[in-house]
Amino acid sequence: MSASAAASSATALRCVGVTRSFASSAGPVPVLRGIDLDAREGEVLFLVGPSGCGKTTLLTVIAGLLRRDGGECSVLGEDQEAMDKGQAADFRRANIGFVFQAYNLIPTLSVAENVSVPLLLNGRSWAAARRDAEAVLASVGLADKADESPSRLSGGQQQRVAIARAIVHAPRLIVCDEPTSALDHKNGEEVMRLLRQLAREKGSTLVVVTHDHRIYDYADRIAEMDDGRVVRISTPAEAARHDQ
Questions:
Q1: Are 181 and 162 in contact (CB under 8 A)?
Q2: Topology of the domain comprising 42-65+84-243
Q3: Among residues 89, 142, 218, 230, which one has the fewest Cβ atoms lying within 10 Å of its Cβ?
Q4: How does pLDDT run across 147-195, given as a tens digit for each residue?
Q5: Model pTM?
């Protein structure tokens, strides 16, 4: 995304002073220590940094699956913590796509049925959901796996099913935790190309946690984290130099 394009698009994500701790036998352990971060509609934002620096915790707070201790966090202009449970679930179902390291596929459903779930939850008919699921599966190279059980797929194929499920309803925000970790370089690039294309065409915002330096070029900006803080916002080229 060019600077002029970013300036002209609306803010999709805004975090100000976000904190989060976890309990331990020795007392609270701070994980997020005052996160300030924003992303705009149609932007691809990567979260990078060493293991344990708070990337996945931040992603989970953004997704509305984990409550923050302090600060502010709005998604598409809404604070999910200000909603009741039903409203928050409806908001996530309509607006957010999830790709986490655990694929969370339903073993008793076929691949196409797994991908259809977000559409069915949003009121689509089974026939329409199946048609759209097959189209998205084709786009991630799994057209011939629609009727397979997830258990018969490789880890990389299951990850692509999880990605297809996350994007099938064209959500306005897509959050991904290591989406290429189970993929070889070729398939990882194809998945990132697809996700970036969706961001461009639909105006979806993509927030990706990754350790995969090979996909940095698919980001518009890279937020570098350390010890629960965002320490630098970089271009892909700048972030690659920092990692050397």
A1: no
A2: Rossmann fold (3.40.50)
A3: 89
A4: 999 999 998 899 889 989 999 999 999 999 998 887 888 888 888 888 8
A5: 0.89
